[in-house]
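FIELD: query
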Amino acid sequence: MEPDLHELLRSLRVWDPAVTTLPPLAPDTAPAAPLPLFARWLAEAAAAGQAEPHTMSLATADAEGLPDVRIVMLHGADDDGWSFATHAHSRKGGQLAGRPHAALAFYWPVLGRQVRVRGPVGVAPREEAQADLHARSTGALAAALTGRQSEVLGSAEDLARASEQAWDRARREPATPVPSWTLYRLRPDEVEFFQGDARRRHVRLRYRRAPGGWTHELLWP
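FIELD: result
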C-alpha cells in the first residue's frame, strides 16, 4: 500500500531535540564580514555530525528566466568567492553562460542552521580548474572524463561503457585534462545566516556588500 503523503508529512518533525541542538547566534559579536562566520559554521556542522555539510543547493535561471536548482559540492570559499565546478556544456554551465548570477543554500539541520548566498558568477582561469579537478579522487576525474553531462542518455549500457573507459583512462593517466571542466566562483553581494530557535524566534543575520566592506542587519523571521 502506498503511504498517504499528507499523513506522512504531518508525522515528520523538524529539529527533533533527540538529534538537533539549536545554539544561539549573538549578532552583536558577529564578524565584520561573512566569510569567517561561514567557515566557523561549516566546521561546527561537520563536528556536530552533519552528513555532507559541504554540499549546497545551486540555483540558476535559464534563458527565459525560469529557475533551476540542484545539489553540488562546495570546492572552496575565499575572498574571490564561493567555488563550485561542472562542465561548461552542462545545463547549469549553459545557464550560467547566459545569466551569470546564482544563489546558494546550505542547510545543516543538526544545528538548525541555513546559509544563503547570492551574487554574480565568474569563471576561474583554466589552469585553476584543471588543478582543482586533479586534486580530487580518481572517481571525480573518471566522472569528468565520461562527459556529455545533461545530454539525453540512450541506455544504461551506453553509460556503463563510457564510464568503464573513463575509469580506465583516469587510472592510467591521472593528469589527463578535461577542457570542458570549469571552476565557477560566486562573488556574493548578499549572505544570510539563519539560526533556528525552539520558540520560533529565529535569528536571521544578513550581510550586504557595500563600498569598502560589508554591512549587516537583522531580518524578521
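FIELD: remark
The first helix runs from residue 5 to 11.
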